[in-house]
Amino acid sequence: MYQIEKLTKTYTQGKRTVHALRDVSLRIEDGELLSIQGPTGGGKSTLLQALGGLDRPTSGSVVLDGKDLATMNDAGLTRVRARTVGFVFQNFNLIPTLTAQENVETALVPAGAAKADRARRAVAALESVGLGERADHLPGELSGGQQQRVAIARALVKDPTVLLADEPTGNLDEDTRDEIIDLLEGLWKEQGLTLVLVTHDSAVAARSPRRIRIAKGRVKELTGR
Amino acid sequence: MFLTYLRRELRNRRKQTAVVAIGLAVAIALVMVVSSVSAGVRDAQAAVLESVYGVGTDITVTQTAEPGEGGGFGPRRFDFGAEDGEATEDGTRQLAQERLTTTPGTTSFDAGTLDTVSGLENVSGAAATLELTSTSFSGEMPDLEQLGEGGGIAVAPRAGAGGGGQGGPSSFEIDQQTVTGIDPAAAAVGPLTTTEVADGRAFEASDAGQDVAVLDAVYAEQEEIGVGDTVSVGGSDVEVIGTVASTTGEGVETAANVYLPLDVAAALADLDAEVTTLYVQVDSSSNVEAVSEAIAAELPDATVSTQADLADGVSGSLSTASSLVSTLGTWLSVIVLLAAFGLAILFTVSGVNRRTRELGTLKALGWSQRRVVGQIAGESVAQGLIGGVAGVALGGLSVLAVNLSGITLSGSTGAQVALGGGRRMGQALPEGAGEAAAGGPAGFGGGAGGGLAGTVSDVVLQAPVSVWVVAAAVGLAVLGGLVAGVVGGQRAARLRPAEAFRSLA
After folding, report:
1. Of chain B residues 323-382, which have a CB less than 8 A from chain A?
2. Which end of chain A is more exposed for a tag (fewer CB within 10 A), N or C?
């Protein structure tokens, strides 16, 4: 469970100061599917990064399962990212020189899994997203949808409790978009994940039980909690 | 995963890997060549010194001639009276004269100094030699009686042979040979310790007082003299009992053309109980300086030289090569090495910048900072290793090429001022040394001609490649990779995943 209190994030971009988040307070229950909508530059991705321990807030707290990610040291954050949180990115962010299976295995490296165990779990994760036959393919040999499936397999192979997806369908056509959303929805239901989905696509957001909107760093509930 | 990832990255960035590896390889090869050639030049210097002073000689003792002093400096005149030689029908006279003197620039001193030096503390061996130069004049000169007033003629071996003049035809030759008298019974120290018998036999203790000689094999071949023949030294014939060749290199001449028993050489040069050089062996290298000072104290007029002094005294192309390697070669290596390191760092940092998203993703997946830095450093070190192996191969081939090219370095030691060039130095003798004069006793002026004396040795450069040089070369390349990896890794370490993604937005 996430408990976010008065979360503020300010950073500089060139000579400009960006107020990405302003006093955001939010609670996300375990196993919840939450969509975050909003305009570009509104603070969606910044919030997601704070939830995943990728970035430290300027002020406020992000408590995950009783531990405040805002004050946690680097080693602690690394552990959280390695074990608890999985990420899916808009640009897939696969390593171009590694095969699909090896890309999935990179998520198991921090846990110190043995080579054979890594291979077995990576193949199983790829099969769970329907890409068991493409394990030996390089990202460049896969379609956009297939690459995103590999990225989802990579995020889930370590059995995280939280899956954070940043515009996962942003670079996909409509058909592929629906496939990926179906997949994520299915995995959420099957595995009881807490799924936080950043999207500017209303069609995608509409499938979430709970939706919030972030604009100019401020949060607004859209589902009337 | 580490190795798989590393291999794929290097393969994927072939051009970058090749450029970094080639840069390091060239630098490493240069370091190897400079290092090996430097060692080769050092060996050559040692060989030159050994060929002159023998193995195991730590100190030499000589005495420099004062200007005007008999042996070393001053004109060496061949004086002929009007009645000397045999008159021929065409109005010329056949003249020949030979003299044996101490090597130019040096003078002899009491042989009893050998006992003095041998008795010093920490001296483990000593030997004395008499180093001489035999100069001969032979040829036809105009009959001076027919030219006018009677008188003599004097010829100095300023430089050259042959001449013609107003008084009639003249033709003559001036030859020089170096002669060293050694104690036949003392073989442990001295110039013959770096020789081996090429033909016949070496001296034995019983040869003392006998008119026998051992010849330098190269000289003997040039002069077409064999064992059993006789050679003229200082006007006396001695029998050749053997030839010796240098052990420091094929075709390298030994310290002298002719070796005689010490007492025979002294008698021929009219220098009884005199020597020109002492060869001293010290029991430990740490005592060389102390013994050197003790000898200097005992023999205040002597010139006492240690191996280090002698090495400094080596001149010629060997000396030039030595200074070239130690200055230009070293600086060039340092500059190229720094350039290669800089190139490796530049490419690694640029690679990290290009892979911002990739490295940020790995951090988002839970890769620790150490693991990310290790991956970058590993790739960089692998590039260094490839460069090191290629550099060792390139350096090895370059050193092989140097060795196969047979570069001959010439090193000379000993006195720097002497009379005209001797044959063993291979100098062409210019014309005009001899002149014919019309009458009068004055004849031919002779002054001390300029020239190079001492001993000249040609050594073929052999640059050795030691295991240490190879290890150091690979180590340097890996170090270059490591430095680049650490710099690149630090950049990767500073990368925060969110900032990485934000910078790409």
Report:
1. 357-358, 360-369, 371
2. C
